[in-house]
Amino acid sequence: PHAIRLEGDLTLGGLFPVHARGPPGVPCGGIRKEQGIHRLEAMLYALDRVNGDPRLLPNVTLGARILDTCSRDTYALEQALAFVSNFVTAASGTGGQGRCPDGSAPQRDPPERLVGVIGASASSVSIMVAN
C-alpha cells in the first residue's frame, strides 16, 4: 500500500524510509520528512529532469516503482518482493492462479522492466533486500 508507480519504458526501483518504524504489530509509524520524503522527492525530480531532456535518453522514458521501507528490514523485504513477483509469475509460464467470472484466463499486464533499485538508506535493509 505504500508505493508510487510512474510509467516508463524502463523502470527504476526505489526503496526509501518514508515512514518511521511503527510500534509492535504495526509496520509503519510517522512520516520521516528529511530522510524519507526528501529522498523520494529527489528521485522524482531526477527522473523528471532526465525524461525532460531528449538528448539524454532519446526515445526512452524512465519510470519508477518507489516503495516505502518503513525503516524496517522485514517490511522492506516484503515490499521488494513486489518488484519481482510479477516477473517470476510471467517467467514461470504459470500466469498465476485464478479465473475470470466467464471462465477465461485473466489478462495480466506484462512484467515491469526493472533495471535497477535505488536505496535503501539503512545497511540492514539493503542487506535483507540484496539477499
UniProtKB/TrEMBL annotation:
Bilayer-crossing regions: none
Source superkingdom: Eukaryota
Keyword DNA-binding: no
A family per Pfam: ANF_receptor
Subcellular location: Membrane
Keyword Membrane in record: yes
Subcellular location, principal: membrane
A GO MF term: G protein-coupled receptor activity
InterPro entries from the UniProt entry: ANF_lig-bd_rcpt, GPCR_3, mGluR, Peripla_BP_I
Gene Ontology, cellular component aspect: membrane
Keywords: Glycoprotein, Membrane, Receptor, Transmembrane, Transmembrane helix
Domain Receptor ligand binding region, first and last residues per copy: 39-131
UniProt membrane topology term: Multi-pass membrane protein
Protein's UniProt name: GRM7 protein
Organism: Pampusana beccarii
